[in-house]
UniProtKB/TrEMBL annotation, chain A:
Xref: PROSITE patterns: ABC_TM1
Record protein name field: ABC transporter permease
Transmembrane segment boundaries: 60-80, 92-114, 120-138, 159-189, 209-233
InterPro entries listed in its UniProt record: MetI-like (IPR000515), MetI-like_sf (IPR035906)
TrEMBL record, chains C, E:
SMART domains: AAA
Gene3D superfamilies, per database record: P-loop containing nucleotide triphosphate hydrolases
Name of the protein in its database record: ABC transporter ATP-binding protein
Keywords in alphabetical order: ATP-binding, Nucleotide-binding, Transport
PANTHER family according to UniProt: ALIPHATIC SULFONATES IMPORT ATP-BINDING PROTEIN SSUB, TAURINE IMPORT ATP-BINDING PROTEIN-RELATED
Recorded GO MF terms: ATP binding
Lineage: Bacteria, Pseudomonadati, Pseudomonadota, Alphaproteobacteria, Hyphomicrobiales
CDD domains, sorted: ABC_NrtD_SsuB_transporters
InterPro entries named among the record's database cross-references: AAA+_ATPase, ABC_transporter-like_ATP-bd, ABC_transporter-like_CS, ABC_transporter_ATP-bind, P-loop_NTPase
UniProt similarity note: Belongs to the ABC transporter superfamily.
Domain named ABC transporter: residues: 22-253
Automatic annotation (TrEMBL), chain D:
Membrane association type: Multi-pass membrane protein
Source species of the chain: Bosea vestrisii
Name under which the protein is recorded: ABC transporter permease
Lineage start: Bacteria, Pseudomonadati, Pseudomonadota, Alphaproteobacteria, Hyphomicrobiales
Gene3D superfamilies reported in the protein's UniProt record: MetI-like
Cellular compartment(s): Cell membrane
Chain segments annotated as transmembrane: 5-26, 62-83, 95-114, 120-140, 182-205, 217-238
UniProt keyword terms in alphabetical order: Cell membrane, Membrane, Transmembrane, Transmembrane helix, Transport
Length: 243, 299, 279, 248, 279
């Protein structure tokens, strides 16, 4: 697997760069890879930290589930209803490029504090990309597939589950991958404001106290988590679609 | 039930609640407080309070007044902290600056415009007779970035606050402690909605009484307090100890009684940064009826 | 060379007299565009005899695929009547198989599953599915690729997958829309031979749309030449080949005659467009 | 045209609905002020110039960050494109990039770039640059080989081929990257200000939020919304011009 | 019908005897793949007489475009020699024009600017550019589209833009790689006539790669048939058409003879692949 070997090399180079930067700017601004990993291990050894992780996870899983199912459903509706899709698309792309953080006060005011605001904020980030990708997946599905299922006289449900779903899956997965990352980001930002638990809360605390090793450890954890999930989804995609 | 406390976990405002919770003092007073909702402070805390099932919380005076000014139906039912002893100004160890007077004509870092850090700086300058327009204030966005600016010589001094100042005390020299220069003033107050107060006077009284018991416990046994803080705030033992010890002499935590003089001192400060435009008519804001009877009498 | 001896060129279809397998009368199709309408096809009269191999040639955009859609029941004619096995075509009739112009293989299924797709949906017994799929995969020369996915195959092989997928349903009328468009001449020739073999074995009626005149000339019993849009049949050319023919007919003089006749028809049609304004 | 009309009708209807909800007190004034009030407030703060320093800082930072991400992203894209083995190694990482919470690197940036605009710009660039890299790679990939061959046939130099053939051929894809860079620069700058900084529109919104100045807060939100919409519409017009020549 | 009377079919190229315009001897080309090498072409010997219209037919992937690249100086042969006008080909020689298999029109330039592109790069005087571009645009029937962008044209028209762009450079050797691949038969026929007219007017040497045997038979003086990869010439077929021919030759019996011969060659080649393993 020379491909992943190359990726490993790049990761190694990043590590070296990280260490170099650490030496350059000093330990108070950037913890070294070793310090970070040690700190992460220490954090992971406390039950407290796992509580925070599970808090973040709860919000994230809920937000992601809503983005996922809501986004796909909405995307499919907009993809099938051409007019609705054409009308909605520019609105959605504009909403997508709004810095959603400016709406955070509004979210707090509407949802109160606690998990629902975090979930809402995660959904605001993740829903639109998944919707847009799903909509385009339907729109760009080769018309010949529809004709084929007609010629084979498939029932509507056969058509939906054995033709349309598998045909649009790859696009949907791309959307879901982006939606995944952005939902996570949204939940974290949400936690950085008003909460008493969660990784975002820990991050705020660490930033306020200048605990750089904690910051880096959480960032590392999040990065590893997100990159792993992403890689798994890509793997799943390749497995399933053979393209 | 959960209540909100500003800067929970980051500053010692919350110590009485921590102690009261740990030692079961709230339960003794007749209420079961299970958790504290923390936040970045200011209006966020006020909003958290409003959104809570038990809308009581301790917030900065400025936030309470701002919320009131915007027409929120709030009342102040007790006071929280009454000292600025945790705030200081640091310089690099090799700095030539000796005192507040030397700041004239120099650049110093504050967290953000109109923040408490700026207010305290301005109050100190006024106290020491330094023209505030001669000191250039740079907003860093937070205490840690402010220290970074200091280290990079972008400024000569930086505001700082405990426990950060204790954690990093070896790296800087303290130019002044705000608590040494400024007279005591009310820095945080307990607020609630008028509606909640009318419907649940007993609960409210229990919270205030529980907190008061917490404050008394702190002064009685600082060592134990430090242990509790260490645990709940996840601080190192010596730092927690020093942080608590520093706050004992200036009597940081009030038992809840209102002191108009100290309240007005804070308003003077808020006027300096322009957050409050005129004197505050406390009678419309304060409600003493939920304080323990002995404290109601104190002025 | 067994084929083509004594074959004649007969201008109009004698099959039309018998009870036709499929029958179009005065069929037209008009598309509604955003601001106008487009008369795409017709009026077309066509009779396909049972077991006939019929090819359609005509310029691009003349309505060949539209014609196929109507026969497949995928779209209804604007006017006129379309019948299959004596019944009017409404929706896709049973017994009709279609190989589309575009690659319609499902990229998420391997070759075997692609071929078995229709049978599974129709609820055919698994043992029977296996039998039929094996046969079709072998027949189309895909045995070594049964477990491959379409992305790993060339365009020509993918088209074969689609043909096999249609075949296993054992349609009585097979409609093929330029199935060899992506192939080079050599492979076309080989595929043509296989198509002929298939046709003989199943005795299905075949309608083949192609733009290659020589392909039409070599494979069909009868070639219909269409005009430019709105497409109508301007000529029917009987090839007179024996049923037992194969690609060797290309080296007979009669093959040259047929292609020459087809070319001449097309050239006249082309010159008409020319004089009407440059295409 | 009718789609456009429908869209305008929908947007206007939604605004009117919110307006009505606010006016009739179904949405309390403390939660949200009516859209018409937002406009009035926006007019006021623009007239008073109260936030003009913040607005200037923010939009300058966004502009700088966009330009930097576009240039850096393009350059990096070209380099990665010309080194296929590096590219193979990097691509899986690029695909996961947005999963990294960029803003936690702020403490490092303030050490490197100091407190203030430079660090904020650095975060925004970090966020925005990758879409430009990806777009550049995509654009370079999609230059048909035959166009380069055509350049050879006309015996053009490498530089001339790059300027007269490769660049125009890749432009529509590059522009997609520019669009994304703008969007992410907006998000990066304003979010950093909101969370980390002591200046700028993002900070002003957070500050207004803290002090219950709903008028200022919603006026500033509206300002951001309007600017994003205008910039987006403008970019889309250019994009459609570029695409129109390419598509039927 | 003036053409094709008394034409004969001559197996080998007599032009080769004269001083050839272009000349290949023992030319091969091998591509380095990540894990192996691919012998794509040759050895090929070829002489193109000055003013000859030569066509190449052969199966897909046999190396036709590779051969063209070598003649155009776009890639160097692995072994053997390539000469143009007596000089070895190193880099793109002056006087050679190429129309590629893929659409090479520049989508960001309108038709006029596309056609003028090469002349501008060569620093030709603007008045002269205008004159030549006008002529070529008119010749290719693009006058009404001079200000249009390629995306607004059909595939065939875009290919004409590329031909015009090549023409204005007045090349002495024109290499055309399946220029009509995207067109239907009718339009091909018309384009073929235009190509013949062009060839007569400029008296350039033309090498045309095509996969349509009838196109090769109708247009060329001589057709080279290539084997499968690695491509070598397995036959040269002389058509014997008069220089003054046009598409009417398709309805002569001789046209049928030539196509039949080409088909037969290809069929034998195809059967060889068949027996070697299914393609
Ligand atoms: N769904 C549709 N809506 C509008 N116009 C259509 C539609 N389908 C086909 N057309 C138009 O009808 C005409 C005939 O189309 P059709 O696909 O039948 O042509 P064709 O003969 O199959 O062409 P080709 O040889 O290129 O496949 C074309 O002009 C086409 O643009
Ligand atoms: N740059 C290259 N690198 C590697 N292999 C190549 C390259 N160019 C062509 N080939 C291979 O060389 C063989 C001949 O290619 P070429 O394009 O010359 O075929 P062709 O006869 O023009 O085919 P077609 O009729 O499909 O255009 C093919 O197998 C092709 O895959
Ligand atoms: Mg068609
Ligand atoms: Mg080729």
């Amino acid at each position: 697997m020379p491909r992943s070997a190359g990726t490993l090399l790049v990761l190694l180079a990043l590590l070296v760069l990280w260490q170099g930067l650490h030496l350059l700017v000093g330990a108070s601004s950037l913890a070294s890879p070793l310090q970070t990993v040690t700190k992460l291990a220490a954090l992971l050894a406390t039950g407290e930290f796992w509580l925070n992780i599970s808090e973040t996870m709860r919000a994230f899983v809920a937000a992601f589930a809503i983005s996922l199912f809501g986004g796909i459903a909405l995307g499919i509706v907009l993809g099938v209803r051409k007019l609705a899709g054409n009308v909605a698309e520019p609105i959605l792309t504009t909403l997508y490029s709004i810095p959603k953080v400016v709406l955070y006060p509004l979210v707090l005011l509407c949802f109160g504090l606690g998990i629902s605001a975090k979930i809402a904020f995660g959904v605001m980030h993740g829903l639109i990309p998944i919707t847009l990708f799903s909509m385009n997946a339907i729109r760009q599905m080769k018309p010949v597939y529809r004709r084929t299922s007609q010629v084979m006289r498939l029932s509507p449900s056969q058509n939906a589950f054995t033709v349309i779903m598998p045909a649009i899956l790859p696009e949907i997965i791309s959307g879901v991958r982006l939606g995944f990352s952005l939902t996570l980001l949204g939940v974290l930002i949400g936690e950085m404001f008003a909460s008493q638990r969660g990784l975002g809360f820990l991050l705020t605390g660490a930033i306020n106290l200048g605990q750089i090793d904690t910051i880096m450890a959480i960032a590392l954890l999040l990065t590893v988590f997100a990159v792993t999930c992403n890689a798994l989804m890509m793997r799943f995609d390749r497995r399933l679609t053979h393209r | 039930e959960e209540i909100s406390v500003t800067q929970w976990g980051a500053s010692l405002y919350g110590a009485p609640y921590a102690v009261a919770m740990e030692k079961g003092l709230f339960k003794q007073a007749g209420i079961d407080i299970t958790g504290i909702i923390g936040s970045g402070g200011g209006g966020t805390t006020v909003r958290n309070i409003l959104a809570s099932a038990t809308p009581y919380g301790e917030v900065a005076v400025s936030a309470a007044l701002a919320a009131k000014a915007q027409g929120l139906d709030l009342i102040i039912v007790n006071t929280g902290t009454r000292s600025v002893a945790e705030a200081s100004m640091v310089v690099m160890p090799n700095s030539e600056l000796k005192g507040v007077e030397d700041l004239a004509g120099k650049k110093v870092a504050i967290t953000s415009p109109k923040s408490v850090s700026e207010m305290l700086l301005l109050m100190v300058l006024r106290e020491k007779g330094v023209d505030q327009s001669k000191v250039q204030r740079v907003a860093a966005g937070g205490y840690v970035p402010a220290l970074t600016m200091l280290e990079q010589n972008a400024v000569v001094g930086s505001v700082l606050i405990e426990p950060l100042s204790i954690i990093r005390k070896d790296k800087y020299r303290t130019l002044y402690k705000a608590g040494d220069i400024l007279k005591p003033m009310t820095t945080s107050v307990g607020i609630t909605t008028r509606k909640f107060a009318q419907e649940n006077p007993e609960k409210l009284k229990a919270i205030i009484a529980g907190r008061r018991a917490g404050v008394q416990a702190i002064y009685k046994d600082p060592a134990e307090t430090a242990k509790i803080i260490e645990k709940l705030y996840k601080l190192d033992a010596p730092i927690a100890k020093e942080a608590v010890d520093n706050m004992i002499p200036p009597k940081m935590w009030s038992e809840g009684e209102f002191n108009v003089e100290e309240l007005n001192r804070m308003v003077e400060g808020l006027k300096l940064i322009g957050e409050v435009k005129s004197d505050v008519d406390w009678s419309t804001v304060l409600d003493k009826t939920y304080l323990p009877a002995d404290l109601q009498a104190k002025q | 060379m067994t084929a083509a001896s004594g074959a004649k060129v007969v201008p109009l279809a004698p099959h039309a007299a018998a009870q036709p397998h499929a029958r179009l009368r005065g069929v037209t199709r008009v598309f509604d565009l955003p601001k106008s309408t487009l008369h795409a096809l017709g009026p077309v009269d066509l009779d396909l005899a049972k077991g006939e191999f019929f090819s359609v040639v005509g310029p691009s955009g003349c309505g060949k695929s539209t014609l196929l859609d109507i026969l497949a029941g995928l779209s209804a004619p604007q006017s006129g009547t379309a019948e299959f096995e004596g019944k009017p075509i409404q929706g896709v009739p049973d017994g009709v198989g279609v190989v589309f112009q575009e690659d319609a293989s499902f990229p998420w299924l391997n070759v075997r599953d692609n071929v078995a797709f229709g049978l599974r949906r129709a609820g055919v017994d698994p043992a029977e599915i296996a039998r039929r799929v094996d046969y079709a995969v072998g027949f189309m020369g895909l045995k070594d690729f049964a477990a491959s996915y379409p992305a790993q195959l060339s365009g020509g092989m993918r088209q074969r997958v689609c043909i096999a997928r249609t075949l296993v349903m054992q349609p009585r009328l097979i409609l093929l829309d330029e199935p060899f468009g992506a192939l080079d001449q050599q492979t076309r020739l080989l595929m043509g031979d296989e198509l002929l073999r298939l046709w003989r074995e199943t005795s299905a009626t075949i309608l083949l749309i192609t733009h290659a005149l020589d392909e039409a000339a070599m494979l069909s019993d009868r070639v219909g030449v269409m005009s430019t849009r709105p497409g109508t049949f301007i000529d029917f050319v009987e090839t007179g080949w024996e049923k037992d023919r194969d690609s060797r007919v290309v080296s007979t003089p009669h093959f040259g005659d047929i292609t020459a006749r087809l070319w001449e028809k097309l050239r006249i049609e082309a010159l008409k467009i020319m004089s009407a304004g440059k295409g | 045209m009718s789609e456009k009309l429908l869209r305008v009708i929908i947007v206007v209807a939604m605004i009117l609905l919110v307006e009505a909800l606010c006016r009739f007190g179904i949405i309390p004034r403390m939660v949200m002020i009516a859209p018409s009030d937002m406009v009035v407030e926006l007019g006021k703060i623009l007239a008073s110039g109260q936030f003009s320093a913040d607005i200037r800082i923010t939009f300058t930072n966004i502009a700088i960050s966009t330009v930097l991400s576009v240039l850096l992203g393009f350059a990096a894209g070209v380099v990665i494109y010309s080194l296929p083995s590096l590219r193979n190694a990097i691509e899986p990482l690029l695909a996961s990039y947005y999963a990294v919470p960029t803003f936690v690197f702020y403490p490092i940036f303030i050490t490197l770039f100091g407190v203030g605009s430079a660090s904020i710009i650095a975060i925004a660039v970090l966020l925005a640059v990758v879409s430009m890299v990806t777009a550049t790679l995509n654009g370079l990939d999609r230059i048909p080989r035959v166009l380069r061959k055509t350049g050879q046939i006309y015996r053009m130099s490498r530089v001339k081929t790059a300027l007269l053939i490769e660049l125009p051929a890749a432009t529509p894809y590059l522009f997609t990257g520019v669009k994304l860079s703008v969007a992410y620069s907006f998000i990066g700058v304003i979010a950093s200000e909101f969370i980390l900084s002591g200046a700028g529109v993002g900070y002003a919104i957070a500050y207004a939020y803290n002090l219950f100045e709903n008028g200022h807060m919603y006026a500033l939100m509206l300002l951001v919304l309007i600017v994003v919409t205008i910039v987006n519409t403008f970019l889309n017009v250019i994009d459609r011009r570029l695409q129109a020549r390419r598509q039927r």
